[in-house]
Specification:
Layout: H1 12-23, H2 31-39, H3 46-58, E1 62-67, E2 72-77, E3 88-92, E4 98-101, H4 105-117, E5 127-130, H5 133-143
Parallel strand pairs: 3-5
Antiparallel strand pairs: 1-2, 3-4
């Protein structure tokens, strides 16, 4: 029996989704938010959107994160050049921006956790929460 690899089609909907993600690389979106932004409705096209997101996650172009504050999954574009499995991410609690912490310290800290604490961490799924430099500066400017 001959098996063939599944073809990846570039449909208009998939191109719109990728274009939207590329325009917002530092943001995470729920499926409802994506439906709203792409279709003008929180429900329209939801099933096809789930299929596209699954395909993009398998291709490592989009990452799925669990948002405990929203109690659902959120999706973020990572593109083909980013290896999100090798570093932590920082999320600003004020503006929601996501920053890739690809400086090498993530893997060092992960090694420390494993060697000294016996805890193996998935860097790509790790999100640190705090306030980004821009929001901190904005807050500092408001106090004066």
């Amino acid at each position: 029996m001959k098996t063939t690899a599944r073809k990846s089609y570039q449909t208009e909907g998939k191109q719109r989704l990728i274009g939207f993600f590329e325009a917002h690389p530092d943001c995470q979106f729920t499926v409802e938010e994506l439906c709203q932004r792409l279709h003008g409705s929180g429900d329209r096209g939801k099933s096809s959107l789930y299929r596209r997101l699954t395909e993009l996650c398998r291709a490592d172009a989009v990452r799925m994160f669990r948002s405990e504050e929203l109690r659902c999954n959120v999706y973020q574009y990572v593109g083909s050049a980013c290896d999100c499995r090798e570093h932590f991410h920082a999320k600003c609690l004020q503006c929601g921006r996501i920053e890739h912490l690809a400086c090498g310290d993530s893997s060092e800290f992960a090694k420390h956790l494993l060697q000294d604490h016996g805890f193996q961490i998935d860097c790509g799924q790790s999100v640190l929460y705090g306030v980004c430099a821009a929001c901190k500066e904005e807050r500092k400017g408001q106090k004066t």
